[in-house]
Specification:
Length: about 260
């Protein structure tokens, strides 16, 4: 398989840095191809602006970001750094997003990568032959898998089903469902390193072992069983039909029934 590893940590000597090194070695050992986007190392620009579209600032026209991204993508006018990352994403079978969790989400530099790379026409906003918009299980990145590797300072129990921080799959729902699944990528259960700030040698080795185990099943592990938008569970207003998950609300209602894959560890 071909794996793109998007790394968003400012310190290569961190636990996350050592885990990425272990992961890349394991991918090589398994015979997979890999490419790396080290966002801090690249000096990645995280903000969308008119330069992304090779658009003259003095044009005077109002900047409509979504429409401008789509036009620039269709006409090949996106900036070179965006085009390079889109080429990597299109090349990959699996995308690994590796970052420390800050304020319950990825660092700004990674959010900016999504903002600038996953543009309309490339990652979303595509249609089928019937003119239906393809998203939530379909879309520009359909057929790919996505894995989050992240670290938190808190203990695992506090991110459990009754933990004060909320269940980790719910905390990461905007990324797992709203970014990966929305663009068609199957979201694998996240791998979380808990207590990262206090991890000693034994804990670091344990997390490296867990990462290697997860990488061995990149192509076979069961993804999170999110419902397909066009699978019949949602009505024309994109609301779950009354007979689907009756009485259930919230994020879990968007998971198909059955045992969910084990994740978060």
């Amino acid at each position: 398989m071909k794996v793109l590893w998007v790394f968003a940590h400012p310190e290569r000597r961190s636990l996350n840095g050592s885990l990425m090194d272990e992961g890349l070695r394991e991918l090589d050992r398994l015979g997979h191809q890999s490419r790396v986007s080290d966002l801090y190392g690249m000096g990645w620009k995280p903000v969308v602006d008119a330069d992304d579209f090779r658009r003259a600032a003095e044009s005077g026209d109002r900047l409509m970001v979504g429409a401008e991204q789509e036009r620039a993508y269709a006409s090949g006018r996106l900036s070179d750094d965006i085009l390079a990352e889109q080429e990597k994403a299109a090349w990959a079978d699996v995308l690994v997003f590796h970052f420390p969790m800050w304020w319950f989400g990825p660092p700004a530099i990674l959010k900016g990568w999504f903002d600038r790379v996953f543009v309309q026409g490339f990652a979303f906003g595509v249609e089928d032959e019937r003119g239906r918009t393809l998203r939530y299980g379909a879309g520009g990145l359909a057929g790919r898998r996505a894995l989050v590797v992240t670290s938190v300072g808190a203990r695992q129990s506090s991110f459990g089903p009754r933990g004060v921080h909320g269940h980790v799959d719910d905390v990461l729902f905007p990324l797992l469902h709203g970014t990966f699944w929305y663009t068609g990528m199957a979201a694998l259960p996240p791998l979380v390193a808990y207590g990262a700030d206090r991890a000693g040698t034994a804990e670091q080795r344990a997390y490296a072992d867990r990462l290697r185990q997860r990488l061995r099943t990149l192509g076979t592990a069961e993804p999170l069983p999110y419902r397909h938008e066009l699978g019949g569970d949602y009505d024309e207003d994109l609301v779950l039909r009354p007979h689907v998950a009756p009485g259930r609300t919230g994020l879990a209602a968007h998971l198909r029934p059955g045992p969910a894959p084990a994740g978060g560890c």
